[in-house]
Recover the amino acids of this structure.
């Protein structure tokens, strides 16, 4: 080699290469030559110019190699000049070796001179490895741990198959190595060398891994045909190419698609693969996989149980012990990533969220079947749905919050059916709804009293519900409510007459959560203005309704209940409705109302004494200021009373419905308690 | 203020114990263990339906200790008036899985509601752990979500 190098050089001094250097250089050169043969056709033009009989390395891979040495471009230019490639116009072996040696010299800090290469350079080894690594395997930083091909973990003996995959991955520049198959003795950037053919060479010398396997790979690559990834593509995260079924079956994978930056993004190919796997477990793509089935399936991936457990935690967003299609895809993707050596994230990445996945890959079939399952689980989901819908409606408009509350179960079904039908056809609404869905689904997820009954339909159905909600709500509204429009009138009424309260009278029937606010604001404003008003006798008939409503509605109301019982009855009833029984009540009442909603909102149980305290303190204030406007406001108050009565009637209906539901739930509970009692003697101590 | 949270299985072995002052961990283990007696006593005493998420009050167990122990188990929590520092609350699910929480009440008086909400959170997280098919009932709980929830409780209260 030395003689050849010296002889072929022609112009430079003879090149003295140590044995190690020789091996390394020769392999590198061979690789570059090989790359010339198989790579994008920079080879032929070079070859055409070469002296016949000389093997030349193509400029492309050579340039890559040099760049990978991380020397500045100017240095590389110098090197190429010095080594004679420019002069002769090609990278013959001598030029190549000289160039490599110069690179080593440059990396060790020596000036790029021909003289430099005469000295013993201890570094070439290191440099070569770096360059090799850089060229072939992308950023070493990205390859923490070893990348793994899943099937090869399973079929470890199947080295030949591994070779093929590695060949494919060559083009995507993310060679992987089965950690099980290869003892990870080599430093990280060597781990990328594919196992099969490079394996023996791995043992021999670490650096020589790269060129040799690559060399051997090259001929394989060509018969194999390039996989879909672009050669030279940098992103090393080619999980798609690594996807294999957990069963031993091997699918011909051309999944080495190019990745966007994140490893957590599922490509279309991956998605299809996951869906196919899902179908193999569960024919209905809109249904879900039970925990045990999924457990068996994922256990085949040979990941450790704690890791699988953690992956499950991440992917099962609604924690129902079953995986819907997007959850399954997320879980599968995480497993694939983990097998490739990526550490599991702390939280589910945004691209793997079920909502995102559903939006990104909508499936029309799923929606229709969603609807079916949705109607099945309707009763169970009514209350949480109501809450969600109400929340949504508040967010969207202030106009039609009431109908969502008033809808009876039958009507709800009809509405939901129309909504779902609309939803399936209105996919363009997806992006908008997506923004709502994560928020709402996260809200629902974070609810303390989590409605586990919604697990079946869970996020998808809520999405369906919410998506379809906005368009169809206007029509049903008038049916449901008698003069719900009066809520608007209320606003009109109050705005001119009581400017201070205009913001306070938000539509009375908004969903439960906002109720404290309007009443708070309204009462607060009212308090500041009004004087003592005679108790309207019309308040009395409402007491019963309000009491009923209190029971069935918010938990906070239930907490308030004991307090309310202590308070005057009128006050007690006015507060939970939050429907603002404004204006017509004595000053002490509004003040109490003001405080109690605050209490309910904060869910703090202040003793009634504290309520009474502020009441007495504040009672002095309104008297002075309000008397001036009392006459003006009486009319407004009376109209408000009327409106409120109507609203109360509506709420009473809702309350009765909820009461029925409550009774049913009670019955179920009693049944369960009976069962428990029967079981009790067995289990107790 | 929750200085120690423990999840105890039906057979009275711990599924999960975590305490904040880690040097006193053994002491907490003992405390929790003793509270189990009180808990069991309450279970048997209750007899009838213990379906609700109630907690038992037992009052102080160790008046001389630094830590108050209130194995509030199945009936509503009642805070003891003892001036000691730590209170222990208990909670039992229908499947006889017990949660015991040792709480340092020296900072602020923890209201009953807050204890209840903490237990509710615990229960929810425990249910989530159960839903994981890779979790075998009876194993120690290693769920990160559970850990983070407990951490949030312990830090927030402290």
């Amino acid at each position: 080699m030395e003689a050849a190098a010296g002889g072929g050089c022609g112009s430079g001094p003879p090149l003295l290469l140590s044995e190690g250097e020789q091996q390394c250089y020769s392999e590198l050169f061979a690789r570059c030559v090989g790359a010339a043969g198989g790579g994008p056709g920079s080879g032929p033009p070079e070859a055409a110019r070469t002296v016949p009989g000389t093997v030349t390395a193509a400029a492309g891979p050579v340039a890559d190699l040099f760049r990978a040495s991380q020397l500045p471009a100017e240095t590389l230019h110098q090197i190429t000049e010095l080594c004679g490639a420019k002069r002769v116009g090609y990278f013959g072996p001598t030029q190549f070796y000289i160039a490599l040696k110069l690179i080593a010299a440059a990396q060790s800090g020596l000036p790029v001179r021909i003289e430099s290469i005469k000295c013993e350079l201890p570094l070439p080894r290191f440099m070569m490895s770096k360059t090799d690594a850089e060229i072939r395997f992308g950023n070493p930083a990205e390859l923490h741990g070893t990348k793994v091909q899943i099937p090869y973990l399973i079929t470890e003996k199947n080295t030949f198959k591994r070779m093929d995959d590695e060949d494919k991955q060559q083009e995507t520049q993310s060679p992987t190595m089965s950690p099980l198959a290869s003892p990870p003795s080599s430093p990280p950037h060597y781990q990328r060398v594919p196992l099969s053919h490079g394996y023996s060479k791995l043992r021999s010398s670490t650096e020589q891994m790269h060129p040799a396997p690559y060399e051997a790979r090259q001929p394989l690559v060509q018969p194999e045909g390039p996989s879909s990834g672009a050669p030279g593509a940098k992103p090393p995260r080619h999980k798609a190419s690594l996807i294999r079924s957990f069963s031993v079956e091997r699918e011909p994978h051309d999944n080495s698609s190019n990745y966007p930056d994140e490893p957590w993004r599922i490509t279309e190919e991956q998605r299809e693969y996951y869906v196919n796997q899902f179908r193999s477990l569960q024919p209905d793509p809109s249904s879900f996989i039970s925990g045990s089935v999924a457990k068996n399936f994922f256990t085949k991936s040979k990941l450790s149980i704690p890791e699988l457990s953690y992956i499950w935690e991440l992917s099962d967003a609604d924690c129902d012990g079953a995986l819907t299609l997007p959850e399954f895809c997320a879980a599968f993707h995480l497993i694939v990533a983990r097998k490739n050596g990526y550490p599991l994230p702390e939280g589910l990445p945004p691209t793997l969220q079920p909502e995102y996945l559903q939006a990104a890959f909508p499936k029309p079939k799923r929606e229709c079947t969603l609807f079916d399952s949705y109607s099945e689980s309707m009763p169970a989901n009514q209350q949480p749905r109501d809450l969600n819908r109400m929340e949504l409606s508040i967010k969207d408009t202030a106009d039609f919050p009431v109908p969502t509350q008033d809808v009876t179960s039958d009507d709800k079904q009809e509405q939901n059916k129309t909504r779902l039908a609309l939803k399936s056809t209105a996919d363009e609404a997806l992006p908008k709804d997506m923004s709502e869905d994560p928020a709402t689904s996260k809200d629902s997820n974070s609810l303390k009293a989590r409605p586990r009954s919604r697990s079946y339909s869970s996020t998808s159905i809520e999405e369906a519900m919410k998506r379809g909600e906005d368009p169809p709500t206007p029509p049903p509204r008038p049916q449901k409510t008698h003069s719900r429009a009066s809520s608007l009138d209320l606003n009109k009424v109050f705005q001119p007459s009581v400017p201070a309260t205009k913001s306070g009278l938000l539509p009375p029937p908004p969903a439960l959560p906002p109720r404290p606010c309007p009443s708070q604001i309204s009462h607060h404003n009212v308090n500041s203005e009004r004087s003592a008003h005679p108790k309207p006798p019309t308040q009395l008939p409402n007491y019963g309704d309000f009491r009923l409503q209190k029971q069935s509605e918010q938990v906070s109301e239930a907490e308030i209940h004991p307090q309310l019982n202590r308070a005057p009855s009128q006050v007690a009833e006015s507060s939970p409705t939050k429907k603002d029984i404004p204006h017509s009540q004595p000053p002490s009442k509004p003040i109490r109302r003001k405080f109690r909603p605050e209490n309910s909102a904060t869910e703090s149980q202040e003793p009634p004494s504290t309520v009474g305290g502020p009441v007495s303190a504040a009672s002095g204030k309104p008297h002075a200021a309000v008397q001036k406007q009392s006459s003006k406001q009486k009319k407004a108050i009376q109209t408000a009373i009327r409106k409120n009565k109507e609203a109360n009637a509506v709420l009473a209906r809702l309350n009765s419905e909820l009461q029925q539901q409550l009774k049913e739930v009670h019955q179920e509970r009693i049944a369960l308690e009976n069962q428990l009692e029967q079981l009790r003697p067995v289990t107790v101590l | 203020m929750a200085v120690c949270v423990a999840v105890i299985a039906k057979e009275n072995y711990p599924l999960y114990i975590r305490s904040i002052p880690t040097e006193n961990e053994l002491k907490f283990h003992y405390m929790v263990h003793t509270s189990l007696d009180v808990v069991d006593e309450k279970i048997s005493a209750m007899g009838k339906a213990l379906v609700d998420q109630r907690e038992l009050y037992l009052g102080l167990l160790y008046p001389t200790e630094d830590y108050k122990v209130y194995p509030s188990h199945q009936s509503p929590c009642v805070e003891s008036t003892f001036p000691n520092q730590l209170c222990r609350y208990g909670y039992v699910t229908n499947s006889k899985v017990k949660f015991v929480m040792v709480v340092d009440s020296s900072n602020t008086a923890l209201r009953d509601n807050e204890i209840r909400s903490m237990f509710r959170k615990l229960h929810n997280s425990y249910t989530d752990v159960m839903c994981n098919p890779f979790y075998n009932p009876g194993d120690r709980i290693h769920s990160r979500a559970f850990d983070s929830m407990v951490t949030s409780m312990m830090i927030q209260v402290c």
